[in-house]
Amino acid sequence: MGFRKMYHNYLKNNLFMRLLLLFSMITVVTIISFSYFMYHSMSQAAINRELEIQKKAMANVNQYLGSKYDSAQSILFGLYRDSSLSAGVSFMLQHPFQEYVQHSLEQYNLGGNSMWNDGLQYFKNQVEDDEDIRNLLLYSADQQTLYVLGHNRQLKIVPTNRARSYIPEVMALESKGVELPNVWVREAAGQWDNNLYAIRTPISDKLTLKNIGQQTVYFSTDGIWKVLGNDKDELKGTILVLSPDGGVLFDSSDQYVGKPYPYMAQINAMYDNSGTNQSDYMTKLTQSKGNFSVIGIIPKKELEASSRRIGSTILMISAICIFFAILIPFLVVMSVAKRTNQIIRFTRKVKQGDLSVRIPDVREDELGQISRSFNEMVEELNLYIDRVYKANIKQKHTELTALQARVNPHFLYNTLEVIRMRAISQGAHDVGEMIYSLSALFRSFVQQKKMYTLKDELEACRLYLELFQIRYKDKFTYSMEWDRKLGAIRVMKMSLQPVIENYIVHGLRSESTDNELHIRVKQVKDFLHVQIEDNGNGITPERLKELEIFFQAEESEGESFGLRSIHQRVKLLYGSEYGVKLQSEPGKGTIVDIWLPMDGGQEVYDV
C-alpha cells in the first residue's frame, strides 16, 4: 500500500524521477557487476602473484641447494684430479693416523711432493673457502675412524668402533643426496646446531676404485635465508626443504626443522608441481641431483586476508562511485526538472491571460532555446493581439461613423431619387446625374458586405470621380488601368477612396482645365501595387517630411479619415512591409503608392 502511494505521488506523473530511478538502477547494477568481476579477477591475480613469488623463491632455493650439492661433489673431484693428493688421502683413510703422520714425514724427508703430505690441508682450505660449510667429516671404513674439520682449523679424530658406536652402520648405508645430519655423527662431532643439512659422498681409492670411506659436509641453512632475503618481505606461507625420508632440512616458519615432516603422505600424493587441499595451496619442486624436494605451502586463510583487503577497497570505491553516479545525475535532472517546471508555470500564466511574463533563461541548451522561443511567441502574440485589437477598434469606429451617416438610409435614398427625378423633369440632366452618383456612392459606403474586393473599392472610386467630373465638367479627367483578374482580391474598405478625396480637396487646381488623375493597379511579386498619380498642386519637401512623421504617429480620436488612417490600418492588418508611400513635387503633382497583399492577408476586415 505504501509503495503504491509512493508510486502515485512521486513516479506516475514525474518523468524525470522515473528516468532518474531507471538510470540509478542501471548504474548500481553495472557498478556492482563490474566490482564483482574486478574483485574476482584481482583476487585471482593476487593469489597467482603470491604463488609466483613463492615459486620464484622456491626456484632460488632449489638452485642454491643444487649448487651446494655440486660444491660438495667438486671437493672430491678436485681431490681425484691431483694424483699425489689423492694418494695421500687414500693412505690416511686406509691406515692409522699415526702411520699416516709418520709416512708423511718420511716422504717429506725424502723430498716427496708436499701436497701428498698436505691432504688434510686441502680439506681445511675447502672449509675456509665456503662460509656455508660448518663441518667437513671424513670417515675411514677400514680404520672406523671419523675425522672432523671445522672453521677453527682444528682436526678432531673420533674412533667409531662398532662395539661402541652406530656410526659404522650409518656410514655403510648408501646415500647420495641431501639429508639431515645423523644424530650419532652429530654426537661424535660435537655439532648440535639444528640449522644444518648434510651432503654425504663416498670416497674411493683412485687406483683400485675400492670404497675407502665417506665425505660428509655440514652446510648451514643461513645461506638459504640469504637466498630468500629479497623476497622475504613479500613471501607468504612456508617454504620447506625435505629429504627423501621426510626429514625437514629447512623450514621458513622454523616449526619442523630437524624433525620428520608430519604431512609427508600428502606431499607424496602430489603428482603435479602444484595442488590444493581444503586449507592450503601447495607447490612441489623435486631436485633429482640432490634427491631433495622443495615444498611451498600457503594457507588459504592468508590469501583470503589479501582478498578481503582487496574486497574492502573495491567495496569502498564502488560505494563512492555509486554515490557520485547517483548524486550528479540527480542534481542535473533536478536542474532540468526545475527549468521544465518553470516553463510549464509560465505557460499556464499565458493560458490565464498574462502576456507580460517572460522566462528568465539565457542558457544555450535545448531548454534555453525553448524558453527563448516561448518569449518570442509571447512577443509575437502581443503584437498580433495589439494589431487585431487596434484594427477592431478602427473598424468599430468606421462602422459607427457609417451608422451615424446612414440616418434612415431608405428615407435618404428616396429623397435623393425624388430630387433627381425633379431635376430631370425640369431639364437639369447634369444635376440628375450628380444626384444618381451621390446616391450610389452613399449606398456603397453604407452597405455591409461579407467580402469587400478590389472591384468594389474601384467602383466606389469611380462613382466619386464621376460625381466631381460632373461638377468640374471640362476641368477634370481621370483614368483607371487594372487587370480584371485582380478584381476578386479582398481589400480593406475605403483603402483607395480617401486618397481620391484627398486629391479633390487639396490637389485639384480649380482654375486649370488640364487636371488629370490616373489610377493604376498591378501585381508586383506577392504585392498588389496601387498607384494614384495626379498633376495637381503637389507638396513642398518640408510638408512631405511632416507627413512622413505624421504617418508614424498614432491617430487620435475624432481625427479626419485620411491617408494616415489608410496607412495605419494597412500596417496593422497586414504587417510593416505594407502601407502608403508619397512622392510629390510642388507644381507638378503627387504620386501615392499603396502596397497591399495579393492574398488579402491572413485576416481581412471590412474596415
Automatic annotation (TrEMBL):
Annotated signal sequence range: none
Membrane topology, record value: Multi-pass membrane protein
Family matches, as Pfam families: HAMP (PF00672), HATPase_c (PF02518), His_kinase (PF06580)
EC number assigned by the record: 2.7.13.3
Chief subcellular location: membrane
Subcellular location: Cell membrane
InterPro entries documented for this protein: Bact_2-comp_sensor_kinase, HAMP_dom, HATPase_C_sf, HATPase_dom, His_kinase_dom, Sig_transdc_His_kin-like_C, Sig_transdc_His_kin_internal
Residue span(s) of domain HAMP: 334-386
All residue ranges annotated as the Histidine kinase domain in the record: 496-600
UniProt GO molecular function: kinase activity
Alphabetical keyword list: ATP-binding, Cell membrane, Kinase, Membrane, Nucleotide-binding, Phosphoprotein, Transferase, Transmembrane, Transmembrane helix, Two-component regulatory system
SMART domains in UniProt: HAMP, HATPase_c
Catalytic activity: ATP + protein L-histidine = ADP + protein N-phospho-L-histidine
Keyword set includes DNA repair: no
Membrane-crossing residue ranges in chain numbering: 20-39, 314-337
Entry-linked PANTHER family: SENSOR HISTIDINE KINASE YPDA, SENSOR PROTEIN KINASE HPTS
Name recorded for this polypeptide: histidine kinase
Organism (species): Paenibacillus alba
